Structure formats: C-alpha cells, structure tokens
Amino acid sequence: MRRKVPPFRTTRRKKKNYSNSCNPIKGKTMSTISTADVAKLRRMTLAGMMDCKKALEEADGNFDKAIEIIRKKGQAVANKRADKEATEGVVLSRVTSNGKVGAMIVLNCETDFVAKNADFISFANKILDIALDKNPADLEALNSLPMDGGNVSGKVVEYIGIIGEKLQLSYFEKIEAPHVQAYVHPGNRLATLVGFTKTGLDNQIYKDVAMQVAAMNPVAIDKADVPQAIIDQEIEIGKEQARRDGKPEAMLSKIAEGKLGKFFKESTLLNQDFIKDNKQTIGNYMKSADKDLTVTAFKRYTLNL
Hints:
- This protein is of the alpha+beta class.
- It has helices spanning about 20, 35-45, 50-60, 65-80, 110-115, 120-135, 140-145, 150-165, 205-215, 230-245, 250-265, 280-290, and strands spanning about 90-95, 100-110, 145, 150, 170-175, 180-185, 190-195, 275, 275-280, 295-300.
C-alpha cells in the first residue's frame, strides 16, 4: 500500500524587526539625518560631508554634540602632528572698504596640495575678514577673536581634524594710513601692504608701488629707516670683500662706505629704480603724481620663493 502523504501547507514567516538591533544610535537614525542637516553642520564647521554625517550619527542628531566631536577630532590630530613642519600655506592681504586699513595674514599647512585647496583658502580668507572687521592689535589678539561659535585659534585646531595636516596661523600685520594698497601675487605665496600719505590719486600709482615692494624686496622706505644693525653688517661685508680683493687695510673703510651707497640705492624703496621705468626712482615716480605723496609703511611676506 502506498503511504499517504499529508497535504503541503504554506506558512508565512513573520519578518523580524532589525531596526533596533542594527541602528548604532538612538533618536535620529541614519535614515533621518537629512542631507540638509549634514550641509548645515558643514557650513558651521567646514568639515567634510562624511565627517559631518558621522558626527551627527554619533551625536544622535544633536548639533552641539556633533560640533564638539569634530573639535575633539581636530585636537587629537593636532596633538599627533605637533612635531611636523608647516612650511607651506597661503599669504593673503586685503584692505577695508574705505581703503584706510590693510591687513595681512599667513596660514601655514604641511603640503602645497592643501595650500591650493579651495576650502583651505576660503578658511584663511574668513580669518582675514575677521582681522579687517575687528582690527586686532597683534597676532595673539587675532587668535582670541570670536569665530563661528569659538575663537580663531580654536577654529584652526578644529580645521586640523578636517584637513589632516598641521595648521598654524603664523603671521599677522596691519597698516593704517590715508590710503593703503594690498597686492597678492598669483599663487597666494607672496603678498604686500603699503601705506601712503595721500588718497584720491590714480589707483595704478598705488598698485605700482605695492608691486615694486613685491618684486624688489626693499629693507626700508629710505636710507634713514635702515636699522643700524643692517648698516653695520653691510659695512663689514664690504670690508671683507675689499680685503679678499687685496686692497690695503687703510682703504677698507672708505671702500665699504662706497659699497654702502650702492646698497642704499638698491635696497631702500624710495631710492630703487622703478621696475617699469628704470630712468626714475620710485620716490620720483610718486612725486610726479603728487609732490606730497610718499610711503608711510610697508609689509612684505613670502613663502619659499
């Protein structure tokens, strides 16, 4: 006899709910942390999109906690890279809307790859904006100024965690004058600031002088402004050169004084030949525009040029 086979029954299995066991956070889940939330945190911190998403997930969607997570990450990376050299970066200078105050900053990083990064340059420009707006007395004061819920130095540390390199706000200078001109050479590795006694002249004149400072790297405005230590050094160099050329010892000082005159001509701004017309000095170029026009101060900074 054939054995009877019981009829086949189909049963539906209940689906298990894995939502609680797989979700690493409580409250806002990975699916409920929106792109808008991530974008908002990125605007607040300048961190990458994935870093912001992870921070929000870890913080259960709480923005204050997420910002603190990003800050702690920055400090941890900063501690690890403290012994690294940050010799690359950007040099930026700009003036206020009325043209009477100019500021220059240097934000260093480790590699030229980061120095060319648009977000890094934007971050440096935000610091320069603060410097122009608040007009701090020095670099220490600039580092202490408020920035995006913290201060400038804290934001630099925070940004280290985003970039992954050592960063350092290493330089800040400013000039106040009736007219201030800024010049940044293409590539953001060389910049100048120049203050003038008069405003309202052809802007090309101011630009020409700022570019002269960039190109010719003067040590002072005029002869009287050259520090005595530099003068003494140049005299000793002149004597040594004359001595090597076999000149009599009694003649060395006179020869060195003659060389010092050449040094003043080549290294003081007002006495340098104008790079666009070497038949006149920078001093004469400015006088041709206005007899009372001269330079009150200048700043120049370069990175590895």
